[in-house]
Amino acid sequence: MSTYERKIRKLKRTIKNIVVENSALCDNISKIQNSIDVSKMERDFLLRKMAEYEPEFFQTSTEAVVKYKRKNSDTNSEASMSQRPYEIKKIVGSTSIVKKHVQVGPQIPRLPLVISNDGITVLNFGKIVYDRPAYHTENVIYPTGYKISRVFNGTNFTCRILDNGNFPLFEIFKESDPYTKFIGNSADDVHSELLQASECRSSIIIPDGDRFFGLRNKIILDYLSQLPNAKRLGKFNKSSHSDIDLFKR
């Protein structure tokens, strides 16, 4: 073997190692970015909750004072507007005060929404169906058009909820094979079919379709409860879900 051939082989091995290392670094960066996005979303959620339940909360620093306040008065329209929290910024060394209303209403995030701890990516929150009882329970909402992507046994699956008249239609399929689908009238039915068709068929596993679809995830459930017509759901009780358990996924 000539000297040039040895150099070429060595150069090829070096390039291959660099490519593999670069791919690993890209994957690591992607995971870190997902964690940052989730942390930002959780921070915004907690800020809105604090503005709702602790209007007198304030945070001081050497440069500015930020205060959230809510006035409880309904004697006139101006008093009614003042019931919303507002932000007061006072610059140290200055007497000027800037008053700005802070919006604490529904805030649906940009999609796709990655929830890395559960391996779920929300593609569409869907639409609330409030006039058909089968489309929600006391603890779960089944919006039509709801769509997520998630990983199961190393394979990417898509989960969807479709409008099927009086009852919702649940659907799971591999993203690599969208024509082979598991379809049923309940999330547990399609989850059970998926488990039977997968490597888990020899194990004793109780299907939990609502959790597999991400419908019991506290972050997803919070955003679903903020969709239009969510307050018109008869059986759903948002107050039964503790905000303290929000990030225990």
Number of strands: 10
Cα Rg: 25 Å
Number of helices: 5
Mean pLDDT: 76
Strand order of the largest sheet: 5-6-7-8-9-10
Instruction: List segments where confidence is low: pLDDT < 50 over at least 5 consecutive residues.
Output: 58-105, 242-249
Shape: flat
Structure overview:
The chain contains five helices and ten strands. It is of the alpha+beta class and 249 residues long. The strands form two sheets. It has a six-stranded antiparallel beta sheet. The protein has a four-stranded antiparallel beta sheet with strand order 1-2-3-4, with no helix packed on it. A hairpin with a 5-residue loop joins β3 and β4. The longest helix has 51 residues. The radius of gyration is 25 Å and the shape is flat.
Keywords:
six-stranded antiparallel β-sheet, 249 residues, four-stranded antiparallel β-sheet, alpha+beta, disordered C terminus, 10 strands
Helix-strand blueprint:
Layout: H1 3-53, E1 58-60, E2 64-69, H2 77-81, E3 86-91, E4 97-101, E5 113-115, E6 120-124, E7 147-152, E8 155-164, E9 167-174, E10 177-184, H3 187-197, H4 209-212, H5 218-224
Antiparallel strand pairs: 1-2, 2-3, 3-4, 5-6, 6-7, 7-8, 8-9, 9-10
Brief write-up:
This protein has five helices and ten strands. It is an alpha+beta fold.
